[in-house]
Amino acid sequence: MSGHMNLTLKVWRQKNTQTPGKFVTYKAENISPDMSFLEMLDVVNESLTRKNEEPIYFDHDCREGICGSCSLYINGHPHGPKKAITTCQLHMRTFSDGETITIEPWRSAAFPIVKDLATDRSAFDRIQQAGGYVSINTGGVPDANVIPIPKVIADEAFNSATCIGCGACVAACKNASAMLFTSAKITQLGLLPQGQPERYSRVQAMVAQMDQEGFGNCTNTGACEAECPKEITLNNIAFMNNDFFSAKLFREEHAHDHTGGE
Amino acid sequence: MSEFKQTFNSSLGKKLIMALTGLFLCTFLIVHLGGNLLLFKNDQGFAFNSYANFLTHFPPIEVIAYLLYLAIIVHAVYALVLTIKNRRARPVGYAVQPKSDASWSSKNMGLLGSILLLFIVIHMSDFWFTYKYNNVLGFKEYRTDLATNQTSVSDYTPPVADFERSISTENNVEIVRVKDLHARIQTSFSQLWYVIFYVIAMGAVSFHLLHGFQSAFRTLGWVHKKYTPIVYFFGTWLFAVIIPIGFALMPIIYYIKSL
């Protein structure tokens, strides 16, 4: 077929968490430039299955850039070289015919490899569960606009809320820090009126959980915001720091309340 | 106590210590450069030697000096602790080096900091230690005629071994006898390798602070639409340009003078 591409893939294969992995080279042949990166891997996997070989494991779900399931560290970039997209939104036309593409899993002690390119990102779930919520008692449904929220605040909160928790920030960070993710969740809720009652216990609980998971420490390089598919900004981290220090310094009512408000 | 421990043992607490010690060291640089501009005065070291004498004999300065040494040590130790933790957070690295968009200086703070620590050790052993604890420096006598304001200089040999300094006025002539650190600087800065080392170290200061100054404010959580551009402005122009160039000019000019 004309216009189709042939590529060489260097893929990280690892049987399970305990077994050491290695790179295996595969040929991806007859790839349409209009395929997504994951569809290209589907084609490779079909040929592997036909040859009775183990297909390459990778995480995916919605394939429209909103679920945060897909990952892949492609040629030195989480989610590939293009800005503000996830791997499922990356098209093969980004690459050139004959190119060698190196595909690695997210590298972080807190994200152990399950198999091949699939990592266990439940550390993010535990950070979220530590305080990334708003407790609401049941009762009558309030009117939609009963709580006034300034437009700029609503916009900022929504920008932070677009974080899909994919872990690209951790993958991109030279320190494997999860502060962009954690701070996006803290900022999203901390900006809104509904998030105020738990604001200062939330930040302490989520930071404590983040530390416990074994992520690294932010040095403000900005690699995370450059690679984030949702363009979450570094300013979220500053918001988190601010809330954390004011909680520790000035909020006596939360002083012994670092476990999440119980 | 455990509440404090918990705060400062957290990731953000350690970063806070890095930021605060770093900013304290930044303010020191301003004072240090300001004082050392006296080296550019063409008075055979009278102003500079008097200044050095003042710094070493004024108690409040002594207190701040020890805080400063403490800040350097704490900054370096916490940097080491954080770096070890960060390494542990990624035990298996990538085969393809990360190509993410981040400034060179932000990715090499450890390297730049190590150069600076080496520099500080050499710098302090050469001038600070020599001045305070090593009895190798000579003395200068500056005689200023208070009527004409003319100053004459001569070497001075102290009558006792533990002589520190003396300031007296006789017949309308002010006589200042102080340790001659200026001569030591002239000797040190007449060696080319020494000058090159100093200039490289000042380059490291520049890149370290280009990232470090604004990063400290981010760590403190002080990011604001109106004020952050001001922080960037000072971080870039004052701390990464003016201060390193000002310091680097000292060895360069003294080297050229020595030729």
Written description of the protein model:
The complex is a heterodimer of chains A (262) and B (259). With 262 residues, chain A is α+β, with helices and mostly antiparallel strands. Chain A folds into 2 domains: 5-114, Beta-grasp domain (Ubiquitin-like (UB roll)); 122-254, Fumarate Reductase Iron-sulfur Protein, Chain B, domain 2, CATH 1.10.1060. Helix content of chain A is 34%, strand content 13%. Chain A contains 8 helices and 7 strands. Chain A has helices at 37-50, 122-131, 151-161, 168-172, 179-191, 199-212, 223-227, 235-250, and strands spanning 5-13, 22-31, 73-74, 77-78, 100-104, 113-115, 118-119. In chain A, strands 2-1-5-3-4 form a 5-stranded mixed β-sheet. In chain A, helix 6 packs across helix 8. Chain B has 2 domains: 2-136 and 181-258, Fumarate reductase/succinate dehydrogenase, transmembrane subunit (3 helical TM bundles of succinate and fumarate reductases, Up-down Bundle), CATH 1.20.1300.10; 138-179, no CATH class. Chain B is of the alpha+beta class. The radius of gyration of chain B is 22 Å and the shape is elongated. In chain B, strands 2-1-4-3 form a 4-stranded antiparallel β-sheet, covered by helices on one side. Chains A and B meet through strand 4, helix 6, helix 7 and helix 8 of A and helix 1, helix 2, helix 4 and helix 8 of B.
